[in-house]
Amino acid sequence: MTDVSMRQMLEAGVHFGHQTRFWHPKMAPYIFGERNKIHIINLEKTLPLFNDAMNFVGRLAAKHGKVLFVGTKRAAQDVVEREAQRCGMPYVNRRWLGGMLTNFKTVKQSIKRLKELEDTINNGGLERVSKREGLQLRREYAKLNHGLAGIKDMERLPDALFIIDVGFEKIAIAEAVKLKIPVVAVVDTNSKPDDVAYVIPGNDDSLSAISLYATAAADAVLDARMTLTTATGGEDDFVELDASGAPMERSGAERSPEGDDAARRNARKPLPGKKKVVRRDGPGKS
Q1: Average pLDDT of the chain to the nearest whole number
Q2: How many Å separate Cα 224 from the centre of its chain?
Q3: CA–CA separation, 186 and 79 (whole Å)
Q4: C-alpha closest to that of 63 among 197, 202, 221
Q5: Cα distance between residue 146 and residue 93, in whole Å
Q6: Would you state the pLDDT for residue 131?
Q7: Entry pTM
Q8: Domain boundaries 8-101+157-228, CATH class
Q9: Going by CATH, does the domain composed of 102-155 fall within 1.10.1240.10?
Q10: Structural domain spans, the chain
Q11: How far apart are CA 133 and CA 46, in angstroms?
Q12: How many CA atoms are closer than 13 Å to the CA of 267, on its beta-carbon side?
């Protein structure tokens, strides 16, 4: 995982909360103070929580888990799409459709229809229909693609949600809670941290702060996959086990190609004390 320092958080404006009159009392433990009627978030609290959240995302990715990136507010749309695509994770960046998780079976039917329309358009299928029908199909495709483009390759429910603004994505969080899907989320001073498994206290409006969160999450996914590939890389070795199931040590000759050839030749030799039986078929057979 790419390390994010407190200085980087300061430069991105992560510490700037909302106006003091809009604060939520449950965020009090994460507030350092106020300046010009703006709450200042305590980054000494944010940084370790942020690292915990990124470690969780990385562990999921290492187990081939799916993390759904969610950011439908205008400031987060492009960043969420870019970073989710970079790490190969599904995303929702336009509008959260009600039932996207809780009614996923129906959503999958819409995704199937989206892919059918996509194939039709890409393979010149619209040229074989009337102009009016072609226009209707294009409109249907545009509507489905607007809401489902980021999850069209998501074949099952995600293992976690990564959310930029909990206040903006209340429906997504409610569905995740109902299905017991853990939520990793940025929580500003005007929101409540309830139902969030991994709280990241921070600014959820600044583009630079949003970019920092999303980039770190994507890096956590990519780094976990890189570590997994490195750990399991190389050619597969066949290990011989003894009667107890423990791996047997092979000699140097056995590990070499010449040793393997010799072992195969020896395996074809008859056992000591036993005569090699040669069966002859022919005229002499009674």
Answers
A1: 85
A2: 10
A3: 14
A4: 221
A5: 9
A6: 85
A7: 0.78
A8: alpha beta
A9: no
A10: 8-101+157-228, 102-155
A11: 54
A12: 6
Block residue for tokens 């074949």: 155
Dihedral in degrees, nearest 10, Cα atoms 126, 131, 132, 135: 50
Do 40 and 66 touch, CB atoms closer than 8 A? Answer: no
CA 134 to CA 20: how far, in whole Å?
A: 54
Q: What is the DSSP letter of 241?
A: B
Q: How far apart are CA 101 and CA 228, in angstroms?
A: 29
In terms of C-beta distances under 8 Å and separation of at least 24 residues, what long-range contacts does 184-187 make, across chains too? 184/53, 184/56, 184/57, 184/67, 184/160, 184/217, 185/161, 186/210, 186/213, 187/27
Find where tokens 């294009």 sit.
138
Q: Measured between alpha carbons, how far is 233 from 279 in angstroms, rounded to an integer? A: 49
Cα 136 to chain centroid, rounded: 35
Pairing mode of beta strands 31-35, 160-163: unpaired
Single-letter amino acid, residue 99: G
Tokens of 56: 């969780």
pLDDT above 70 for 278 = no
Amino acid at 151: I
Task: State the amino acid at position 170 in one-letter form.
Answer: K
